[in-house]
């Protein structure tokens, strides 16, 4: 053996001396000992599914349902049933005018629900979003109307006010260790009191209708190209992102979606997008408020799914101790999540103020808090953390808004609306609990 060749250690030499002759590798003692037989390559089951075509996808669909991986299926089914029921009771429910108005009315609550999704992903809750939305609406109204501050400055102060609230609450939760339920419950009371203080003795500040917030809510693009252009941009963005992701995965040597799969998903999205655009154009056109809502959903969904920060949020919701041992700064992530939630509450509160053209003592009150949390949960975000999407806010807000709109058309009382909304929320939580139990039984949780 030359001096350049690596010498085996003593343990390895001793093991080779005791090998029987018939097991000694050819070439003598100095020949390398084979460690194991050549391993059989493991085939990813997703590749088998895609190679089997339609049959494989149906089998995969049944497997996912049987193992509790329901995704957005329950809420989509619920939405179809709600629309079918109310559409059969009154044809005006599915009219272009009612659906267009519905797309505007859900924006305020939906934006708040987007922030709630982030907190729920941690397995926590924020009970202050209603009061925060009212406080930030009051800040904007008082600065803009009462004190004549520049509209953009007033808007920035209101949004930053929401972020500051989230920072304070996140600090007590993440650094001091006070449970989020207690911190935000106290905030629900405290921020509501601060809102009353900001509004002053009048108790109500009416917006001019020409301010930036009112224009964001009330502006509707009447040109048909606006709605169809948004649909086209959304489909093209989805197709481009899917192709880029598939190419990246192929270069990395990991399973990726085949082109036929991407094409099918793109076609389904295009059908939904262009049908929605057609419906909006049958009334007035594309509401700017809906466009803003969709932008927030897409951007924040990208943050959750495609950034390191988003993976940290999911990691904390799935296993906080594992996330801590992986080097994730748990306090910092928790604080920023509560800041995002309160910031979205501020944005949603501004749209709600624009909807009624005022900020008053009742802003952020009523059933707003419950509707925002219910929208996130009904849309598919788990109360137990680690599973959810910003699209849940849109789906859940559509369900709640559709129930309210349909019952208003039928002339039913608020009492009936509350009971049915509560029943839908309970059903969503039950489905989530059963799905988690099924996933654990199947070894996928």
TrEMBL record:
Comp. bias (Basic and acidic residues): 1-21
Region (Disordered) location: 1-31
Record has Protein transport as a keyword: no
Cellular location(s): Cell membrane
Membrane-related topology note: Multi-pass membrane protein
InterPro entries (UniProt xref): ABC_transp_permease
Protein name: Xylose transport system permease protein XylH
Keyword field contains Transmembrane: yes
One Gene Ontology cellular component: plasma membrane
Main location per the UniProt record: membrane
Natural source organism: Kitasatospora viridis
